[in-house]
Amino acid sequence: MLELDELIMDFGGFRAVNGCSFRVEKGSITGLIGPNGAGKTTLFNMIAGALRPTSGRIRFLGEDVTGLASHQLFHKGLVRTFQIPQEFHRLTALENLMMVPPSQPGERLFANWFGWGRVRAAEGDVERRAYETLEFLELTHVAHERAGNLSGGQKKLLELGRTMMTDAKLVLLDEPAAGVNRTLLRKLESKIEILNKERGYTFILIEHDMEMIEKLCAPVICMAEGTVLIEGDFQSVRCNPQVLEAYLGE
Ligand code: ADP
Question: Which residue of 10, 42, 206, 250 sits with most ligand 1 atoms within 8 Å of its CB, as the best mutation to test the pocket?
Fold first, then answer.
């Protein structure tokens, strides 16, 4: 589904990502781990179109997408979750889901051709889909609560829900477990698993929570100093001496 070929990212004279190559198979949940400063976020930013690589290629579904902007990738089904923006904190959970733009640019135009009746029907569809998303996430009890009042874990679930409002194929999750209590963490894990197994989403996730990585991710890729140290199943990566050394040096 995704192929990274010798990606390099320089910030001035500093090489944050130094020749990174790997493939992500359709239907997998790939875990990206590594000590702070390894280049994981920079790599995510390149994949998601927030940073243009200094050199190297990115292919998504067989197409060269190197240097495309994030909105172009979004329309192709490559979506990155972001924290709910400050301005959206005053909107309710339901409204936050309804604010996600349609992933097919033609949808709105299509509705316009058929007049207001159709537009209203389309809005109804969005609301229904948003509500179904809240049901799936078990968040209907906070549907009309302002997003700013939700707990850390509920916000993470809502962020996941925002990707479900699109026709996402590959979802990049940046530290989904950060700031989430244990109970909601289990729920978040199970929702990611269902989206993967039953709805066909492919995921790449950056995570420091090794329990989550162990439960969800295969394969696991460990980065250090801008390159891939090792790729494999959780146990083999965890026990690799180079990986242990990289973490010790943190
Ligand atoms: P990780 O996510 O693995 O912790 P990052 O990708 O955030 O690593 O950072 C990798 C390295 O690149 C770090 O040394 C960081 O300081 C540096 N870096 C990241 N972004 C920038 C930037 N915009 N300008 C300069 N250096 C950066």
Answer: 42
pLDDT in tens, 142-188: 999 999 999 988 999 999 998 888 888 999 999 999 888 888 899 89
The reply to whether ipTM tops 0.90 is: yes
Ligand 1 proximity of 40 Cβ (cutoff 6 Å): yes
Cα separation, 249 vs 126, in Å, equals 49
Of 78, 58, 77, residue with least CA distance to 67: 58
**Measured distance CA(209)–CA(220) in Å, rounded:** 13
20-58: pLDDT as tens digits: 999 999 999 999 999 999 999 999 999 999 999 999 999
Nearest CA to ligand 1 atom 26: 11
The rounded distance, in Å, linking the Cα atoms of 140 and 144 is 8
- E strand map for the chain: 2-11, 14-24, 29-33, 55-60, 63-64, 78-80, 170-174, 202-206, 220-224, 227-232
Q: Domain map of the chain by residue range?
A: 1-77+167-250, 87-166
CB count, 10 Å around CB of 42?
21
- Ligand 1 in contact with 154 (CB < 6 A)? no
Is the CB of 38 within 6 Å of ligand 1? yes
The one-character DSSP state at 28 is -
Q: What is the pTM for the complete model shown?
A: 0.89
Query: Ligand 1 atom 21: the closest Cα is on which residue?
Result: 11
Closest protein CA for atom 15 of ligand 1: 37
The CATH code that applies to domain 1-77+167-250 is 3.40.50.300
